[in-house]
Amino acid sequence: MKPSRSFASDNNATVHPEVMEAIARANQGHAVGYGDDRWTESAAGKFREVFGEGVEVFFVFNGTAANVLSLQALTRSHHGVLCQDLAHVYTDECGAPERFTGCKLIPLPAPMGKLTVETVSRAYHGIGDQHHVQPKVVSITQSTEMGTLYSVAEIQALAGFAHEREMYLHMDGARISNAAAAQGLTLRQATRDAGVDVLSFGGTKNGLMGVEAVVFFRPELAREFLFTRKQGMQLASKMRFLAAQMEALLTNDLWRRNAEHANRLAKLLEQHIRKIARVKIVYPVEANGVFAEIPTPAIKKIQERYFFYVWNEEESVVRWMCSHDTTEDDVREFSAFVEEMVR
């Protein structure tokens, strides 16, 4: 019998019990649809409490929508978006950002998953030339696709570069909670105070049933977003159930508790995996992901029992993710099985 929990993705995890309770509380009687309800108003208030006054927040169904609509709000079709070459917006959204924004995504090399001012400056050219797309957005992921973290100083440097050139800084924060928790930061310190203009705030990977948020730290950028979201087919009729989840996540530091647990279990997994001969940790474990190089024949053997993704087939690197519901027993049993399969 296969284990009930795997290490494939925090998307595969359960919904946190406190979130389920919040949904049940919202499931009482009728409420006006499309966000004109007290749950949505209350959740928006939580975002202002956490991120500061003046923020504008809009709930959507998934991370692809949060990213695509964020970029759409910041660009016109002749603009370019600078991102790293393994960014989720570039590799894993089926071309949706380019289709719906009309913009060109410009992939840049990013060792350890992080863009630098030096890297983006090399792509900032053709300004004012009608033959070239005009760079308008720098898009970063926190934590990165490789499980590494930007420091606040690194984000501030990119924000400064962008703002000096009348560009915007967008953050794909599918795992922003893990990043903030790992660095001992508040969500505001990790985003708004660092210079981020628009945040795709992740909930699904951190214990929610299925909701993300687009958070504008400059209200003028959100002026027409109601229409952008509707045209993007992301306006929920029963919005209260999305809002109730987000309010629960931002109540009593549930976002931090979930993220700290997942991060801690990833560190525990790293400790066990480092003891296994013929297995090598390839990236620093800074959030809730562990990337390891293992013998190719062992991959399918392990996948027969545990589902997970191969990150790089050529280099035989796999990705293992921990979640809010991963247990220490899960880690010990998985590590023991990996050791057995790579002998």
Fold blueprint:
Elements: H1 17-26, H2 38-51, E1 56-60, H3 63-74, E2 79-84, H4 88-91, H5 96-101, E3 104-108, H6 117-122, E4 134-141, H7 152-164, E5 168-173, H8 176-183, H9 187-190, E6 198-201, E7 212-216, H10 225-231, H11 239-249, H12 254-273, E8 280-281, E9 289-293, H13 296-303, E10 309-312, E11 317-321, H14 328-341
Parallel strand pairs: 2-3, 2-4, 4-5, 5-6
Antiparallel strand pairs: 1-7, 6-7, 8-9, 9-11, 10-11
Helix pairs in contact: 1-11, 2-11, 8-12, 12-14
| Record field, number of beta strands | 11
User: What's the SSE pattern?
Assistant: HHEHEHHEHEHEHHEEHHHEEHEEH
Overall pLDDT: 97
Major β-sheet strand ordering: 1-7-6-5-4-2-3
Give the CATH architecture of the largest domain: 3-Layer(aba) Sandwich
* Cα gyration radius (Å): 20 Å
Query: What overall form do the CA principal axes indicate?
Result: globular
Task: Tell me the name of the CATH homologous superfamily of the largest domain.
Answer: Type I PLP-dependent aspartate aminotransferase-like (Major domain)
Q: Ends: how far apart?
A: 22 Å
What count of helical segments does DSSP give?
Answer: 14
Overview of this protein structure:
The chain is α/β, with parallel strands linked by helices and 343 residues long. It has two domains: 233 residues, Type I PLP-dependent aspartate aminotransferase-like (Major domain) (Aspartate Aminotransferase, domain 2, 3-Layer(aba) Sandwich), CATH 3.40.640; 84 residues, Alpha-Beta Complex (Aspartate Aminotransferase, domain 1), CATH 3.90.1150. It has 14 helices and eleven strands. Strands 1-7-6-5-4-2-3 form a seven-stranded mixed sheet, sandwiched between helices. Strands 8-9-11-10 form a four-stranded antiparallel sheet. Helix 2 packs parallel to helix 11, helix 8 crosses helix 12 and helix 12 runs parallel beside helix 14. The longest helix has 20 residues. The chain starts with 16 loop residues before the first helix and ends with a helix.
